[in-house]
Structure formats: C-alpha cells, structure tokens
Amino acid sequence: MLLFVPRPLLLPFPLPPPTAASLRRARSRPCSFKASSSMGGVEGDGRHQVKPPQVADGGAGEEEEFRLVGYSKFVRKNPRSDRFSVRGFHHVEFWCADATNVSRRFSFGLGMAIAARSDLSTGNPVHASYLLQSGDLRFLFSAPYSSSPAAIATVLPDREGFAEAAAAAAAAIPSFDSAACRRFSNAHGLGVRAVALLVDDAASAFAISVANGARPSFPPAALGGGAAAIAEVELYGDVVLRYISVSAATGSRPWSFLPGFEDTSPPSPALDYGIKRLDHAVGNVPELAPAAAYIRRFTGFHEFAEFTAEDVGTVESGLNSVVLASNDENVLLPLNEPIHGTKRRSQIQTFLDHNEGPGLQHLALSSGDVLATLRKMRAAAACGGGFEFMPPPPATYYRNLRRRAADVLTEEQMAACEELGVLVDRDDQGVLLQIFTKPVGDRPTIFLEIIQRIGCMVKEEGRKEYQKGGCGGFGKGNFSELFKSIEEYEKSLEAKQAAIPAAAGSSA
C-alpha cells in the first residue's frame, strides 16, 4: 500500500481565519441544490442536459476532443500530466439529516471505528460531524443543527447579532452550510457531498483549477491558524472536489484529522473488518464527454480506462464509462453515462432520476483480504445492521471461474468466492475480486463496492514495494453479471409497485 505523507503547507499568501462576511459571500455564489445543477439541468421535457464545461480565458479550443474508443482499442499511457501535486484521497464527506445514526450504521456495517468528532460537545453549534476511519479510509458524516436564534442562543447567548458570526467561525468545516445541506438531502437523499484529496497546497490547487476552468465552490480558508487549509471546486452535480493540505510543522497536534475535530478513544475490542483505503469514487452524469473534459482540464488527470456499451452492457441496458487517474494512479475517478434506446432504462438513468441529477454512484473500498472482510460484514448484516449485497451470479459463473483464475486463486479461495458471491476478473496485470452492496440509503442511488486487487507489485529504488493503481482493472468481465443483478432487483421493485394499484382495484 502506498502511504502518503503530508508535506509543508506552502501558501502563496497568508490566509486569515474566515469571517462571517466572507463565508456569506462564498455561500452566495451560484451553487444550486435543485434538480438542475452545475453539471446537469432539467429542461421542459424532463431530460437532464449537460452544460458545456467552462474554460479559462485563452484556452478555448485547446482541449483535445474526447472520443470513446472502447476497452479493446484503448491504449493505456500515463503522461503524468497532473496540474498540481496530488498525494491521495483524504476523506469522503456524506451530507445527511442525522449524522449520529447514519455514522453508527456505517461504523457497524463496515467495521470502521469513530475516530474523531465535531459537534455540540466540542463547541460546534453549526453541524454535527463524525469521522469513521479504517486504515487510510476516512468517511465523514455531517448534518446541520437548527439555525434558529433560540437554538443558537442556548450555546452562544448573544442577542445582538454576533451569534451568527460566532457560529460560522465555530464550524469545523468552514464550507458547511446548513440550508444547503438540507436542500442537498431533500434533492438527493443520503449522498456524498465532497471527495477530498490530500494535496501539497490547497490554495495553489484551487487557483490552478479555477484558472483552468474549474467552477469555484469555496475559496481557500486556513484551519487551526494555518495548520491546515481547505478549498473546493465543483466536480459534478452537487458534488465538490475538496482540496486539503496539512502543515508538516513539528510538535504534537491535538487533532489527527483536521483542526476543530476532537479525537475519540478507540473501541475495545477494536472494530476492524479489514478495509484499508478508498480505491475509486464513481460518478454518474447525463453526458460523459463534457463532464470528463471538464475534470481533465482543471486537474490534468489522464484517462486510465474506457468502457462502452459493447464492452459492458447487457441485451437490455448499458452505459459508457471512462476512468480518470492522477499521476500515481491511486486517485481514480470513473464517470458513467447512460445509454438510451435499449429495452430497459439504463441503471445510470435510474440513478439520475432518483438522485435528481448527477452525483456519486458508488465508492470502492479496498481490503487486503476481501473474503475475511465479507464474512464480518455479513455477520453484521445478520445481526440487523450493516448492508445487504446484490444477489450472486449463477453457479455456471464459478465453474467458468476455475478456467480463468485457477493459476492465481486456490481451490479454497474459489470455493469461498462462490459461497460469498464474490465476482472475479483479471486484466493483463492482475486479478480483481469484487462484490457490490444494494443501495445503502432509501433511494436506488449510492452503493458500495468491496474489492481486493491481487498482483502488480512494484519495487522501485528508494521506496517500499507497492501495488500499482487499478491492478486487475475494474471488473469489465463482471459488468454483465452485475447489470443482470441490478436489472432483476429493479424488476422486483417494479413488480411490487405495479401490484399496488391492482390490489387497490380488486379491493374496490
């Protein structure tokens, strides 16, 4: 596993703590949380339409035309074209209405202990935020407190208007906006608001991104007197790409995540199902080309893989997909678009409809032993918590598996894959084990993928042995099986919905 160590924070200018006025100005910038969003609006016919990506002055026409060629014709190359230093994923923030209960469900279901908190008990009257951590994977769950004057007065009893400024300054995540979070939850249900990257310099990454066409969401702000910094740009829909940089100044810190968060005591016995890091974060958009071009332009990320409906579809539905990657290919941002005109509506379109626009479809969580991780996750689910998994493929899948992976997996491992419903795929470099949960919220939108990558170990002079990013691919050989499972799941929902009016008619 490649470890990312923070470097010194190098701000091009001093960043004073954000004032209430500056926060209000930032929040007043256009940032819609309606069905129409920065990467997709809703026209009169109800179809999502993508706005063309903005480009920096003087950059028009410089962007190479994006054209899918498909998996078999795609030639992988790494131009190392990042526009700023990216060290890896830092965290993922979910916006919700009840951070306490959602975070506890994920904690129990994934074996992720609560590692830090910022809420009323720590002096934060704006939002409750709870950080779960397992290895290098960090999930942050945030929900707003009441912004009524009476509620604020219970913790900040200033009745002359200063309470608002004091409350804004006390927010641990300065970009958090209570009204925006409520609108987000109404529009999308449980969902990811921010995918955070650890960078050398958040202010510089923000400036470079905006200069190359990124739409700003929150300007650079110092945290903890300059111990860390945060900035955000729009990614797709109402999801933002968050930049985090942390000072490497010596001395002990009272926090391990970010300033404003208090560390919590580890549970005893330890809660750990073996999940180690975030492998990739997948977004769904109405149209792939403008969304991919937009992200490529301001990040410099390169194309890692492509898939078309011919590669990964079924006879009933399909999608197109592209994977964007950072220089070291350990930050992977796949994007999907729906295919129209098929027998069934694409699962991507189902997501877009229920999510009311573009958004983050799923998070792939990497384990060093996915079989052991799944046994613990299934045990948690059997106790009434945790997450349900998609139905397994038919037995013929595993008979064919032995012809494809017997040189890598033992008979015991292949038998366990069949028992647990794990899908197995491989590319020219390694093997991928993967399984998908059912949607984790009320809507058929966001879900989780649990994976293990085998092979692709690299030893370079002067650094520890590590695994190449994306080893084993993204499950191209399993897409059709996954889609069939999703199609059957959707058909079961449709059958139950169709039965309601029929039952009502018979009772009448």
Q: Any descriptors?
A:
alpha+beta, 28% helix, 4OHPhenylPyrv_dOase, eight-stranded mixed β-sheet, 508 residues, metal ion binding, dioxygenase, 2,3-Dihydroxybiphenyl 1,2-Dioxygenase, domain 1, 13 helices, cytoplasm, iron, single chain
Describe, in short, the structure shown:
Belongs to the 4HPPD family. By secondary structure, the protein is an alpha+beta fold.
What portion of residues is helical? 25-40%
Distance between the termini: 63 Å
Strand order of the largest sheet: 8-9-10-7-3-6-5-4-11
Q: How much is the average pLDDT?
A: 82
Please explain how this structure is put together.
The structure is a single chain. The longest helix has 29 residues, at 479-507. The protein has 2 domains: 71-82 and 273-497, 2,3-Dihydroxybiphenyl 1,2-Dioxygenase, domain 1; 86-263, 2,3-Dihydroxybiphenyl 1,2-Dioxygenase, domain 1 (Roll). It is 28% helix and 27% strand. The chain has a 9-stranded mixed β-sheet. It has helices at residues 20-28, 99-110, 149-153, 162-170, 178-188, 202-211, 288-299, 309-312, 347-355, 370-382, 395-405, 411-420, 479-507, and strands at 41-42, 48-49, 86-95, 113-118, 127-134, 137-144, 191-199, 216-223, 228-236, 239-246, 262-263, 275-284, 302-307, 319-325, 332-338, 359-367, 423-426, 430-436, 447-455, 457-458, 466-467. It is α+β, with helices and mostly antiparallel strands and 508 residues long. The chain contains 13 helices and 21 strands.
